Amino acid sequence: MMAERMNVVRLVALTHPENVASQRVCVKCGGKKGEVLKESYERFVDGGLKSDVWLFYFDRPGVEVKDGSDGRVKMEAHKEEKQEKGDAA
């Protein structure tokens, strides 16, 4: 199970736009504010009304992640390069 987590290069936190305390925690922990998803989250406490969600991104230390990417494309590119080097040998 831990081996599967080695490929995780970015975590994403979702916060409600009015939840300023959680947003502060995300920023203090090194999160970078991302996009706002409009009406994408149903809130049980509001009777199922759809709400906006703010995203915060946390990149894995020591791993370079291209902006706008979730990191998976870059990891796939590295796997292909390793396969090509293995085929050439």
Short recap of the structure:
With 89 residues, the chain is an alpha+beta fold.
Give me the number of helical elements: 3
Overall average residue pLDDT: 76
Kindly state the percentage of residues in helix: 25-40%
Biggest β-sheet description: 3 strands, antiparallel
Quaternary status of these chains?
single chain
Biggest sheet, spatial arrangement of strands: 1-3-2
Low-confidence stretches are 71-82
Structural class: alpha+beta
Could you outline the blueprint of secondary structure elements for this entry?
Blueprint: H1 2-5, E1 10-15, H2 20-28, E2 32-43, E3 49-59, H3 72-88
Antiparallel strand pairs: 1-3, 2-3
Written description of the protein model:
With about 90 residues, the protein is of the alpha+beta class. The protein has one domain (about 5-89). The chain is built from three helices and three strands, in the order H-E-H-E-E-H. Strand 2 (about 30-45) and strand 3 (about 50-60) form a beta hairpin. The radius of gyration is 17 Å and the shape is elongated. The two termini are about 30 Å apart. Mean pLDDT is about 75; it is low at about 70-80.
